[in-house]
Amino acid sequence: MYDIAAFAASIAPVIDAVHIDVHAAGRQAGVEYVRRSGLRPGFLIDQRYVLPLRPLTRAGLAAVYRYGTAAERDAEVADHFSQGTLREDEHGGLHATPVTLAFVEGLYTLHEQATAKLWGGRDELVGEVGELVGRLLETAERVRGGALEAMAPPYEPEGVSAGVALFNRLAAFRYHRADAHAAAWQAEGLSAREISLLREGPVWEKVERETNRRAAEPYALLGQDDRRRLMDGLLTLSRS
């Protein structure tokens, strides 16, 4: 399992790089889109691939935004109520409104343009990598009450482009490692604030080792050839 843990450590920054590239490619258009919408989107951008499928819960938001405070999360939820971008049911579920769904549809269009700009002419590779990441998402353990449980599976409307599907699958899959990291620092008795302040040293190294061990689980199910295809594909896309 050590080799798989090392793979989990080495691929994590590559996944982050591909994910960040798409955000960067669409940033200027995204800023203008938000301005035109007149909304304060807050976490609606993160939740773009969740809200069209299922309601949010406050517990799920606490897992996803575990490094913030309950007061901060409650204030944002209240702001969405005031904008009409969320509604709450009798069980506390937080649902998208038509305003939100229209906003998400526009985001998907922007991200389709951004991924086409980055990866145009690489449709076969994008589809192949997207299929591998989809398999990771299907097999990754969703810890009860964890962030991945809240964020997966991602919304993929009929006709969604391979680029947008890959982007959102990567975005969702990153929460598997986030849950692994949280479990590792919690096992050391650390709080969210303490781990955010922790720097290199024996405890930090122990947390990183345990994070990689836990994060390795879905990669072990891919097989060596598929792991190599995944890494090579992501590296190619990150250099596009």
Overview of the structural elements:
The protein is mainly alpha-helical. The protein has one domain (about 1-35, about 100-240). It contains twelve helices and two strands, in the order ααααββαααααααα. The chain has a two-stranded antiparallel sheet with strand order 1-2. A hairpin with a 5-residue loop joins strand 1 and strand 2. Helix 1 crosses helix 5, helix 6 (about 125-140) runs parallel beside helix 8 (about 160-185) and helix 8 crosses helix 10. The model has no long low-confidence stretch (mean pLDDT about 95).
Oligomer: single chain
* Tally of DSSP helical segments: 12
Q: What gross morphology would you assign?
A: globular
Quote the beta fraction. Answer: under 5%
Helix content: 55-70%
Largest sheet: 2 strands, antiparallel
- Along the chain, the helix and strand elements come as HHHHEEHHHHHHHH
User: Would you count the extended β strands for me?
Assistant: 2
Strand order of the largest sheet: 1-2
User: What ranges have pLDDT less than 50 throughout 5 or more consecutive residues?
Assistant: none
Task: Give the total of domains.
Answer: 1
Structural class: mainly alpha
Give the overall pLDDT as a whole number: 96
Radius of gyration: 18 Å
| Cα end-to-end separation | 32 Å
Question: Briefly, what is this?
Answer:
The protein is mainly α and 240 residues long.
Features:
240 residues, mainly alpha, two-stranded antiparallel ribbon, 2 strands, globular
